[in-house]
Design goal:
Blueprint: H1 3-12, E1 15-19, H2 26-42, E2 47-50, E3 76-80, E4 98-103, E5 114-117, H3 124-135, H4 143-156, H5 167-176, H6 183-191, H7 195-207, E6 209-210, E7 215-220, H8 222-227, H9 232-235, E8 250-256, E9 262-268, H10 274-278, E10 283-284, E11 288-293, H11 296-315
Parallel strand pairs: 1-2, 1-3, 3-4, 4-5, 7-8
Antiparallel strand pairs: 6-7, 8-9, 9-11, 10-11
Length: 316
C-alpha cells in the first residue's frame, strides 16, 4: 500500500486539487469532498480545491470550485473514483506537479505518479475513511467528512443491498453515523425522485424486454427524456429499475444522447459484465458498468452478448 507516501505528499503540498469522474454519483462527490474536508480540517492553511464540471441535481451534497489554471503549477492533484483518464472531469488534472490516483474500480488504466486502487472496497469513500484512520491524526475527521463519506458508501452499495457490502463496510458506516449529522435525512434525500423521474421508471417497466434467460433491456429515446424535462444526470434514477423484477438477472439500459451515440448502463445480479462493457468503449465494476453504443446495430449486439452471458450463468 502507498498510504504513507500519499500522506507525505498531502502534508508537503501547499495547493491540492481533487478531481473526480464526469457525471458524478454520490461516491465520486463523497470521496472528493470528504477527502478535501479532511485535509482542510488538518491543514487549514492549505489551498484545497474541488475540480470538475457541474454536479447536476446532487448540488445539495457538494459543489465545485472555480480553479484557476495557475493553481496547477505546483499543485498536488488527486483523482478519486475515476478508473481511466478519459473519464476524469476537467482534463487539467494532468497539468499539476504530482498526480495521485485513489480508486476502487479495476485498475485497467494505471495512471498517475502514485496510485492506491482497491477493487475489493465497496466505494472510494470507504477507502478515504481507511486513509483517514491510517493517518492517525495527520488528516482531520468531523461531521462534514462523515456525512460526505457516508453518502458515498450508501450510494455505491445501493443502501447496503449490493454484494460489495462487506463487514468492514458496515463497520465504517457505523463509525460515520456516530458523528453529528442526520443519516436518516441524508438517506431520504438520496432516495427521493421527482415525478418526471417516476414517469421515466414507468416507461422502463412498460418497454422492458426480458429474454427467457433473464437478460433485460430497454432503449430510452432522447424524445422521451426531453418530453419529461429531465437532464442526463436525472435519467440515472431509472438505471436500477429492472433489478426490482423477479426473474431479471442482468440488464442494459440504452439512453439516446443528443450527440447521437447511446449511453449504456449495465447492471447484474451475478454474471460478470465489465468485460462486455470494455468491448464497447466502456468498463467498470464486475456487476455495474457503463459503455457506449454507436447505433441500433451495436445495441442489438450488446443485447445478444448480455443474453449469452446470462444464459451461461443460469445454466452453469
Amino acid at each position: 500500500m502507498n498510504l504513507e507516501a500519499i500522506l507525505d505528499h498531502i502534508e508537503e503540498a501547499e495547493t491540492i486539487i481533487i478531481h473526480r469522474h464526469v457525471n458524478p454519483d454520490p461516491d465520486a462527490l463523497g470521496s472528493q469532498g470528504g477527502l478535501a474536508a479532511s485535509i482542510q480540517a488538518a491543514y487549514p492553511q492549505k489551498k484545497v480545491f474541488l475540480a470538475g464540471e457541474g454536479v447536476g441535481n446532487l448540488d445539495w451534497l457538494s459543489t465545485m470550485d472555480q480553479v484557476p489554471d495557475a493553481a496547477y503549477a505546483n499543485a498536488l492533484v488527486i483523482t478519486v473514483d475515476t478508473a481511466d483518464t478519459p473519464r476524469v472531469s476537467d482534463q487539467r488534472f494532468n497539468t499539476g506537479k504530482f498526480l495521485i490516483k485513489i480508486d476502487h474500480h479495476p485498475n485497467d488504466d494505471d495512471y498517475g505518479d502514485l496510485s492506491w486502487v482497491v477493487p475489493e472496497a465497496s466505494s472510494t469513500s470507504e477507502l478515504i475513511y481507511d486513509l483517514i484512520q491510517h493517518a492517525a491524526g495527520r488528516l482531520g475527521f468531523n461531521a462534514t467528512v462523515a456525512r460526505l463519506l457516508y453518502a458515498g458508501i450508501v450510494g455505491d452499495t445501493g443502501r447496503f443491498l449490493f454484494n460489495n457490502t462487506s463487514a468492514h463496510t458496515l463497520r465504517v458506516a457505523a463509525a460515520l453515523i456516530q458523528e453529528d449529522f442526520d443519516p436518516t435525512a441524508l438517506n431520504n434525500r438520496m432516495n427521493q425522485i421527482t415525478l418526471a423521474q417516476a414517469k421515466l421508471q414507468s416507461y422502463v417497466f412498460e418497454h422492458l424486454e426480458v429474454t427467457a434467460s433473464g437478460a433485460a433491456s430497454v432503449v430510452i429515446p432522447l424524445a422521451v427524456v426531453e418530453n419529461l424535462g429531465l437532464t442526463s444526470d436525472q435519467v440515472h434514477a431509472a438505471v436500477g429499475t429492472p433489478g426490482r423484477l423477479e426473474g431479471v438477472v442482468a440488464w442494459a439500459i440504452f439512453v439516446e444522447q443528443p450527440e447521437a451515440p447511446y449511453r449504456v448502463n449495465l447492471r447484474s445480479k451475478g454474471p460478470i459484465i465489465n468485460e462486455l462493457a470494455k468491448g464497447h468503449h466502456g468498463g467498470g465494476h464486475p456487476l455495474a458498468s457503463g459503455a457506449k453504443a454507436q447505433n441500433t446495430t451495436e445495441i442489438a449486439e450488446i443485447r445478444a452478448q448480455l443474453d449469452a452471458l446470462v444464459t451461461q450463468f443460469v445454466t452453469a
